[in-house]
Amino acid sequence: MARLDEVCKLPGHQGIVWNVGWNQEGTILVSCGEDKTVRLWARNINSENNLWVCHSILSDGHQRTIRSVSFSPCNKLIASASFDGTCCIWEKKTNTDGNQYECTATLEGHENEVKCVAWSTSGSFLATCSRDKSVWIWEVGEDGEFECAAVLSAHTQDVKKVCWHPHQDIVASASYDNTVKLFCEEDDDWVCFGTLKSHDSTVWSLAFDSSGKNMATCSDDRTIKIWKEYLPGNEFGIATSDNTPTWKCICTLSGVHPRAIYDISWCHQTGLIATASGDDAIRIFRIDPESDPNAPTLEQLATVTRAHEQDVNSVAWNPVIPGLLASCSDDMHLKLWQYKG
Q1: pTM for the whole thing?
Q2: Which sign, positive or negative, has the C-alpha torsion 304, 306, 312, 317?
Q3: The predicted structure's pLDDT at residue 93
């Protein structure tokens, strides 16, 4: 029987912990929260049982809650997004033991709280989104400077999440307007080339699979949806327009989550999907390999009903260690979990 075993519980934040993520090697866990700090966690190799400990606290960058945090692909930079309307860039100091970062840039422009920040896989771009209904694309210069390349105002409400395609400079955004938008660069302009409509309420989060050809979304409507990309001229007869791909909802899972689903993470190694929910639970799913790829079935593999004492806000699969999952909650704690199938 598949299960999700708790590895450890990490206290330290003084308030709600909003977001967790990993560096590219999967050796450092990063978190942020209501206490206006970013915390870096790593295994203590000197301890007998390799406990995870907080080895660095980044403060003095933001004036209000930090809602989102993201490692750059090169691991030298961390971006943090805050309710103070700014995004801070933290750069690793080269003259120390490697655990220290300093705020070297503050990106300003959003009119309201910045809800999410994410680096493109190429490392060339940074995306931010806000309660001001916009998605901003920042270009990362060779000199380390950040320049606003586009302000995208396709959404009609608060934008909750941005997530980059794993292989292309394509960014997806999730919004309070119940939709997902897809953006790409065309002739030096960033354009919206797709709007995904199927959810009945706020889309809280989204995640691509390892191929980038499938996407999972989760919502306040308590459903998970799987979307599939169909290219022009596809063999299935799915219509496309303007020679651009079409994204179609091919699976909806309902009746499993009794409350809103706040985050979703799709493991690029194992294909496992994890959800974070307002019912304090973490659930693990996978697409049934025997099901029709154009109408797949989601299998529920494991559930931890009281994963945290309050809402689970974020989940993130380790990019290197199969089945290692991080989570965080309103209960001020992070946890690490190991999936065993």
Answers
A1: 0.96
A2: negative
A3: 83
